Amino acid sequence: MHEVIVPKLNTNDESCVLRDWLVADAARVAEGDLIAVLETSKATYDLQSDFSGVIERSAEEGEEFYFGAIIARVFDSEKERDDFGKSPAVQDADGGRPSYIVTAGARALVERHNISADQLATLGKKAIKKADVESLLAADKDKATSKQAPDPEGVVTLTRRQLSIAKTVTHSHTTIPAAFLAVKIYCDNALDALKEFSKRNKVMAGLPEFLLKTVAGNSTEYPFFFGKLLDDERFLPAADPGVGVTMDFGRGLSIPVVRCAASRPFKDIVKEILGFREKALRDEFRAEELAGGHISISINMNQDVVCVVPIVLPGQTCMLSIASIQTELTADKKSNLSTRRFTTLGVTYDHRVINGFEAVQFAQTIKAQMEKADAASLA
Predict the structure, then answer these.
(1) Is residue 152 part of a domain?
(2) Same structural domain for residues 103 and 189?
(3) How many CB atoms lie within 10 A of CB 343?
(4) Bridge partners of 341?
């Protein structure tokens, strides 16, 4: 008998929802078959079977499970499955076998909620089913609720996604000693080059895409901005970094990752980010699209936003931000007035790995490259 366990899907969540079963109960499955779809606060994940045999589902669609929970078992034969279903699942405190049996559906709830043999014995039944365990849990919940003061009127419970975001932000602020700087980037050349590029390639390319490509191209010269601390003394740089970009269209924040950004053509990056935006609008990200980031960019192009101080995502050492495009007056040596456009680049960095001098150099390098943008730099 082999247990099907919910894997740890990401570091931001502690649990996931079993959205769909892709195989029927008691069906035969082969190693590598897709058997279920799991959903975290931000993405979905296709769960494969690691074994071949007869599957017995022990969880229901729509239920929430902590990572590591058992949601099914795969048996080598029908007989093994039948024998297992008849066997007791819980031992008494002294190690002896109780006088009742626990069905597979009930067993999953017993394991998930750490229900003791003594608690099951209070049911007074020889065969304990899932509904029996649910009634036991409901009774415990009613007792706990009766002891709590009622919520004030108007209280709103945060969504699973917002709780996940809160956990990440809290973890960042409590574990990463971060510092911040901001630089002004004049972007007339970049915007003109992007306009021509978009027209020529029939795509919509903007400053965030150009910033992503520019940043990724500096991973060799500035390795400590692209990677993670393994412990207090060791750092692992990324050879060809994945760059995350923030996206939020009212369904919650997601940070999909453009992989191997340094070695890919700019046009490919533009198309991939466009696809990410469409998925963000529909809330359809896959788990693998949100993984593999070595540095991230917070995009904040609302016209009234002039500067943003992002966090450093746990597992990374730097997060950049780009604000809206602003216009200012400038005068030449003869006092002739004209206008020029600029944006503000924010750099938040892990001060354990990166010092202020390096952060300023990194920001100034990006500034120089973006201000000198032309058609060749977008190739």
Answers:
(1) no
(2) no
(3) 24
(4) 327
